[in-house]
Design goal:
The chain has 149 residues and is mainly beta. It contains one helix and eight strands. Pfam families: ADH_N.
Length: 149
């Protein structure tokens, strides 16, 4: 069925090429995950460096794009701070919460997850119609901020 597929721009690390392709819409959510319909994704210098091979990316193919906003489509059973229909921004970073950096408020340097679990670099990101992320990455937007901002 067409509604089970989405458009996604997949970057191949080996050939350094982007291919617009169809992928299955993520439907199976873990209890702590959220499915977001992407509204806007920024193009960052990190994306450009990654495409040139100057920044580490997941080997093989990855949907890049880590500056993402959108609308929540569905939530896992343990998610209670957002609901379907909410407008959100997505933090691409994931952290362990226990290493010396995370406990000091510098989770962008996380030794356990850090960049290895970054949405849009190692996990599929926002250059697609939908993105599945952990609930801790999703932040509701006030009505005063539009999705492109």
């Amino acid at each position: 069925m067409a509604e089970d597929l989405m458009q996604a721009l997949v970057f191949d690390v080996d050939t350094k090429t982007n291919t617009l392709t169809q992928k299955p819409v993520p439907r199976e959510l873990a209890p702590n995950e959220v499915l977001v319909k992407v509204s806007a994704t920024g193009i960052c210098g990190t994306d450009l460096h990654g495409m040139k091979g100057e920044f580490p990316l997941k080997k093989g193919g990855v949907v890049m794009g880590h500056e993402i906003s959108g609308v929540v489509i569905s939530v896992g059973t343990k998610v209670n701070h957002v609901k379907p229909g909410d407008r959100v921004a997505i933090d691409p970073n994931r952290d362990c919460g226990i290493c010396c950096y995370c406990t000091r408020g510098k989770s962008n340097f996380c030794e356990i997850l850090g960049i290895k679990e970054n949405t849009g670099l190692f996990l599929d990101g926002g250059f697609a119609d939908y993105v599945r992320v952990e609930a801790v990455q999703v932040h509701p937007l006030p009505e005063t901020i539009d999705l492109e901002t």
